[in-house]
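So, could you explain this one?
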Amino acid sequence: MLRILCLVVMVAACGSAPTYRVNLVNSTTRPIERVFVFPMGSAEHGSSRGGIAPGGNMEMQLPAGRHDVLVESQEVRISPTERERRSATSTLELRKAVEVIFYDSNTAEPKRSEGQVLVPFRVDDIPAPGETPPADEPTVAPSNPLDPVE
């Protein structure tokens, strides 16, 4: 009897969870060079699943559950001497197929339809050397971060 119970438990454990289609879309003007998908909260991101060209997409099947998605774009020059690699991340709880659209925060937010998740790359407009910041932005930070800027 114990053997049968063990066999039933082993067969049940081997059953597979449902999988869902995840379509990652790059709505930026630069390539996404690395795509990482890993269990939510995991410190280990694993290997990159590849890249996504501007305007392109990458499809994959993932099991139901919670997954973190981290993408890193191609480096961009933010000043004559500085470059940065922008990243964007989102946590997905898969219960059905989903489309994840990555876009830049300084562009118009794409129209969202059912089954879509919008994930922005944060883009700060940094003035070039010698340029004056826009009038609506403070030029000097307050001495106490909690004090309002006037």
